[in-house]
Structure formats: C-alpha cells, structure tokens
C-alpha cells in the first residue's frame, strides 16, 4: 500500500506552520476478495483490457465451482458467484482495477495530505486503504466519498478493524468523530506522537524483544553456536527476525541515539549466535 510514503507525508505536512496534526484513517474492506461484485468488476474492465481477455476471464470465473469437505463428507459442487480467487496471481490486479475509480474520486477533490503537488489523501492496495489529511473536515469529506462509492459498488468495510490515529507535534489534542456512513470510526490506542519519545522508545524496545525471542526460538532447529555456518545463521536472522523489526517501521521516526542503540543490540545478538565476543569489532 506504498507504506514508505507515510513517513515523508507526516514530515512534510506537520512541518508546515499552519498544520499541527495529520489524521491517518485505516479502513479494512471486510473479506474484500471473497465478496467482490463480479458483474461490477467485468463492467469496469470494459475498454480497460482487451475484449478477448475480458471474455476469457468472464468465462473462467463463470464456471468456477467449489465444494465443502467436513469430517470426510463431501458436499455437492456449487457455483461461486462472487469474489476473486484467493491466492490467484491476477486477483490483486483485478481488485485494484475495481477500486481504481475510488482512488481517482478521492484525489480529484484535491483535499487531504500532499507532498508538494502529489496528492496522498488516499493510499490503497487491494483491501487496505489509508486516508491521510491534516484537516479534519477534509478527512470526513473523503470518508463520505468512500462511503458513497462502497454503497454503489458493494464494498463492505469492517468497522471493527477500521481505526484512526492522529499524529502531532503536541501531545494533547481532542478526540475526533470520524464516520463512514453511520459507523463511527474508533481511535486506535497507542498513538505514536512525533514528540512523544517515551512511547516510541517503548514501541521499539518491544519490537526488538520480539526479534530476540524469534532468534532464540530458532535454536532447537540448530540455529545456534557451532551447529551452523555463521553465514547461514546470519541469513536466517535476516529472513525470520529482521523482517519482524522492519514491519511498520516506516511510520516511526527514530532519533539517532535510539538507532545506534538498536544497532548495538542487533550486533550483540548476532555475535552471540556465532560465538563472538560482544566487543569484537565488525
């Protein structure tokens, strides 16, 4: 969902003197792949892809069948009339075609967050949508556009998974009343304020502890001193541990002191795993 754009967007908008906050509203489309309105999808694909390809896709989905297996008892086959295939190579692309007009409607209103002339009022990929706006009324206007589109094209948003966060230089500001249709969007607990270093540090420390726990959990598989080549241990660390730490890290601003501390903890963890003294230089 282009998460790498979020941090620059926060810096750019909050850095302006007349903006002291940025709202981030996260919307989760409920089982979007399973419930996608197929007739609407193939209507949107007219004049977008080659007609012969569109007809092939239409036929392919028209004959899609499934059955239910429960306690070794198999049901009769039935035709699946909605949704795109879970795990299908084309499914994300088809869904993006389906919501492309929603993105256009939101950006055409020229409201919400921007980086210079680049409109970032909505960032979307498949069933994940993020609304960004430094102005409260703009955020609600964009939500109204999304609500109208979702009603017209039968997209259902999960109110329990949708939430908003407000980022600010100041630690204290009011609670906002954002709505998607008749549903009030809840404020997410644990707001990461740009000026709240204690919260950010606790968040980062918890992520680093999860990395360390994951590394130790690999010990029974032989990922420990004298059981594997150092290069293999480092590779496993990058694949299974470092990825945990990096997840969602692009929306957190880390000062240089904390960055050096995390780098030191990571180095000590790896050195311990390959039987090196923690004071050994790289």
Automatic annotation (TrEMBL):
It comes from Brachionus calyciflorus. This is Reverse transcriptase domain-containing protein. It comes from the Eukaryota. Residues 1-184 form the Reverse transcriptase domain. It holds the Pfam family RVT_1. SUPFAM superfamilies: DNA/RNA polymerases (SSF56672).
